[in-house]
Design a protein that fits this description.
Elements lengths: L1 H35 L12 E4 L2 E4 H5 L3 H6 L22 E3 L5 E3 L10 E6 L6 H13 L11 E6 L6 H15 L8 E4 L3 H11 L3 E4 L4 E4 L2 E5 L5 E6 L5 H11 L7 H8 L3 E4 L4 E4 L1 H47 L1
Parallel strand pairs: 5-6, 6-7
Antiparallel strand pairs: 1-2, 3-4, 5-10, 8-9, 10-11, 12-13
Helix pairs in contact: 1-9
Length: 332
């Protein structure tokens, strides 16, 4: 009887648990609706834009302008758009020189079954590349995943004149900034000839140009996340990087194969959806309800299975006692 009472209490708790989850999901829907509203005078964040004073310049809108408007831009800013090729699998057979002057295929860094964070920079860049790489490295220090252990970081120089010795110095600079011993083998700073650089840039939709008057390369700051098979999964624009967004993007690029069990479950259930307007991942209320429903089922099964077995055992015991009583009655 005490076991039955205990099972009944467990069932009651499971039902209460389900009701709490339903209320929590309803509250999440309300909060989500409130968060989606933006005050009229408050500018929304744009991950693909750069802040100029209090205004946001949307790089995607600039890229979509007709040729006439493109001509009105400064020469250095023309024809350097990012042609996002999300879902496209790039050709990884191109060869580049690593920082130790070894001629290696790019696919070498995709052989560990890890996602790759790819960028196009060059060591003699006056400012932009340094700010881009430094900000990303600082953000990665706050990410649970480690370069080398969980993903690879590859930077291809867009300057065909850059030497491997210069790339080696650049790698030392950023591995020291990352400041996590044992991760050096996860950083790769590549150089190559003009044809290979242009081919890989085109594969990734990365536009850039050389400006002879200023003796520099003009390009936009962007990191490209690729799956272990070389499929483009996500573009991370701009110079401001949120560690939480990066971590979720890495999980997505790894197709849910890295991270804690909770992270893998959240990926499998589609808990987070990338919002192009904000450049961040948003939690999906429907996924929350799916999780709540799954947990409710588990709780109910956990509470009812012992009851079923106990009830079945009692029936078997009662049948045995009845047979015993009938046998005793027959003998008497």
């Amino acid at each position: 009887m005490m076991l039955i009472q205990s099972v009944r209490k467990s069932s009651g708790r499971a039902i209460c648990f389900a009701l709490v989850w339903m209320l929590f999901a309803q509250a999440a829907v309300t909060l989500s609706a409130q968060d989606s509203s933006t005050p009229e005078n408050e500018p929304a964040e744009n991950a693909t834009g750069e802040m100029v004073g209090e205004e946001t310049v949307d790089l995607d809108e600039i890229n979509a302008l007709p040729e006439l408007d493109q001509d009105k831009l400064p020469e250095a800013a023309q024809d350097i758009q990012i042609n996002q090729r999300t879902g496209y699998t790039v050709d990884l057979d191109s060869f580049f020189y690593d920082e130790n002057n070894h001629h290696v295929p790019l696919k070498r860094y995709f052989s560990e079954g890890q996602p790759v964070m790819l960028s196009f920079n060059y060591s003699n860049c006056p400012k932009l590349c340094s700010v881009q790489l430094e900000n990303m490295i600082l953000a990665l220090r706050d990410v649970d995943f480690k370069v080398g252990d969980d993903f690879q970081m590859v930077s291809i120089s867009i300057d065909p004149l850059e030497q491997s010795s210069r790339a080696f110095e650049t790698k030392e600079k950023y591995t020291k900034l990352y400041n996590k011993p044992g991760t050096e083998d996860g950083f790769h700073f590549m150089t190559g000839n003009r044809d290979e650089i242009e081919f890989m840039a085109e594969e990734c939709g990365f536009g850039y140009k050389y400006v002879p008057e200023q003796k520099l390369y003009s390009h936009l700051p962007v990191f490209i996340l690729l799956s272990p098979e070389g499929k483009i999964v996500r573009y991370i624009h701009g110079l401001d990087y949120d560690p939480v967004t990066i971590e979720r993007a890495l999980i997505e690029a790894a197709e849910g194969k890295i991270g804690s069990p909770i992270n893998r479950i959240s990926y499998g259930l589609g808990c987070f959806l990338f919002d192009e307007s904000t450049g961040q991942y948003t939690f999906q209320v429907m996924a929350l309800m799916r999780i709540g429903g799954a947990l409710t089922v588990i709780a109910l099964v956990g509470a009812l299975v012992p009851y079923w077995f106990f009830k079945r055992g009692n029936k078997t015991q009662d049948k045995s006692q009845d047979k015993g009583n009938m046998a005793a009655a027959t003998q008497s």
